[in-house]
Amino acid sequence: VADIEAEIISVGTELLLGQIVDTDAPAMAQTLAECGIVCRQRVTVGDNHERLVALLRAALKRCQVVITIGGLGPTQDDLTREAVAEAMDDSLETVPEVVESLKEFFASRGVKWTESNAKQAQKPTCATHIPNPNGTAPGILCNKQGKIVVCMPGPPGEFLPMLEHSVGPMLAQIGTGQVIFSKSLRVTGMGESAMEAKILDLLASTNPTIAPYAKVSEVHLRLTARAATKFDALKLIEPVEVAVRKRLGSAVYGCDDETLESVVIGMLTSRGLTVSTAESMTGGGLGKRLTSVGGASAVYVGGIVAYSSQLKTAILGVNKDVLQKHGPVSAEVAQHMAENAKELFKADYAISITGNAGPTSDTDGKPIGRVFVGISGPTTRVHEVNLRGTREDIRNRAEYLALRWLREDLLNLNPNG
Amino acid sequence: VADIEAEIISVGTELLLGQIVDTDAPAMAQTLAECGIVCRQRVTVGDNHERLVALLRAALKRCQVVITIGGLGPTQDDLTREAVAEAMDDSLETVPEVVESLKEFFASRGVKWTESNAKQAQKPTCATHIPNPNGTAPGILCNKQGKIVVCMPGPPGEFLPMLEHSVGPMLAQIGTGQVIFSKSLRVTGMGESAMEAKILDLLASTNPTIAPYAKVSEVHLRLTARAATKFDALKLIEPVEVAVRKRLGSAVYGCDDETLESVVIGMLTSRGLTVSTAESMTGGGLGKRLTSVGGASAVYVGGIVAYSSQLKTAILGVNKDVLQKHGPVSAEVAQHMAENAKELFKADYAISITGNAGPTSDTDGKPIGRVFVGISGPTTRVHEVNLRGTREDIRNRAEYLALRWLREDLLNLNPNG
């Protein structure tokens, strides 16, 4: 059976000019994939009748299904109904029952009825209305000579419920009947091309397909299978996932919504271990990451942000001579910060971060991007790196690396963990 | 003079399938508008060579300027370079200097070089490279027979700086020749409709135009003027800015890239005051915000993340009876945390945050979203709020409000400051 193909057309000058970010079209695209309908392309066009008609005609030539989002309101700028009728060689008719229910809707909200609102009760003669419990403009479903056009309102509060309750189930029926299911493996400590080199043959797989996505500090591998049921799709994914994990080893740290922080918190929880932090350059960012995970309170005791050198000495007990001799951005200070924090907070582990994130070279002459991370557990390891980018990049990357190195230590503590 | 027209093509299967939301294309569209270039339409297409070539050819027929975003990476899926070369009837060449600088970039990060990365040093022969200080793939600027194609990398951390520093200024030159200059006023503590009501007549202004953009916790008012020179544009903006500021008073806290944290750090710096933090629910997020500002070390001493109740007592010295009687999420604990932190860190001000961000109702029975913020300076004020949203929403909003309230206290300290 040939794939059913679709295109999505987002309508609105505000969208086109980038004054609002389009979150409807991505949600629509995800639904199409789940219904086994292939999304060929998405287009955003302004409130322009001729262009919209031309786009609709071109899309209808290429695809069986065309989705429009937006342009169904009551104002002069709302042109989707007229454009769809013209592109389908049809004309508009007003549905009196819809006019009546619109008037009731206005009355129930205490809003004065103006005649321009009756426009929203129009539809091409080949179409039926799709109920919109959350707004005034109903959706429109056109079905003519084997072509389907679905018109949906743009406000997400109206669009999303209509997608979930009406349009999604309808598209699933006309789709291939197949289900599409994806799983993402999260890979850390290995660049995109190094990873590809290890799984080059697997990347040729067609069901599931395997697609790498480079993120800021890691790579996500998305495995997508197509089958009659979600269970069958999972069965297709499983052996490929096993093969990928075998090739990449512990570089795969989690899947789907798991984050490095949630995985680290999980490892500490299952081992009954606690952790604390002593941050300088990152100013509390590592603590924020750890506590972004619900349930972090069971393992994260707390931390200190020792931003000034005085504080490193006064509260964290970093030796003054060490500070003076090596400067605050040094392996020695990172080590003392981690070891003293572990003791101060009575935790099993402590992570320290000191470094220079810019904007200016530090007083102690360490270049921008030089960072020291200390991990103190049964023993203490200090890592030195030189990071690039903006102040925020350097800080974020240091936090991320601290988590990666803590995970490594926890893996080494118990390699089967 | 006829308008210069442009189209934007976003490339990537992940984008097409809605797995990520495209924020680059809206930013690009805004820049085009500011440069006086008319954006005709935006298209999103997957990693598919033939379709991309067809789209490029069609766009080049309609428009003088075509922008592509994404598909410049080192993997097999990255097809933009090849597609653009084909659509421009050109061929690709490798620039040896770029290969060398890529190798240096990898070496400096301690990442192993793989030969597939050399692909990123290719460009059509009619093109020049656009520097990318934040990633490996340079941008590409093609200029052939009066047609301009600009190819930019997709990761926002690479795309946005390239847009601001290279592509934007270049597009302004080929635009109408007029300079478009914008200034954003940042408004806090006032909703969008309340603000609009105060400046309704000013919103009718056409040069500069005034457009309000609602952000998560604040509203930005964008004043955009068009003139022969930047100086003339600024002269148009000035009187309108003065009028807006007069109407909105101290709700306008800054402009353009200023953030609430940078403004607060600036106020503390100019007054010679220091600040410290005592965080529970936010886990270090407030410290991270304060230290996101370069030069924060002059005023931010440091802080403590007292995530566990034991720590609130042990290190921060919060009275055990107070903790037991009122629970960790209470006005009394927020007050003690702020006052004790001020003393412990020997700072002029201390900010405390305690609350319940979820996911579960706390042991002491405080509902999700209940937050207490203490500001201790010459006196101590405790604020209570009930925030909605996800765990991250609640934490972020609490940090933001703490900064807003510290600013208010500093303004009251010296109303002319």
Description:
2 copies of one chain form a homodimer. Chain A has 417 residues and is of the alpha/beta class. Helix content of chain A is 39%, strand content 25%. In chain A, the strands form 4 sheets. Chain A has a 6-stranded mixed β-sheet, sandwiched between helices. In chain A, a hairpin with a 3-residue loop joins strand 16 and strand 17. The first copy, chain A, is elongated. The model of chain A has no long low-confidence stretch (mean pLDDT 91). Chains A and B meet through helix 2, strand 2, helix 7, strand 10 and helix 10 of A and helix 1, helix 2, strand 2, helix 10 and strand 14 of B. Strand 2 of chain A pairs antiparallel with strand 2 (38-45) of chain B.
Notable traits:
417 residues; 5-stranded mixed sheet; elongated; homodimer; alpha/beta
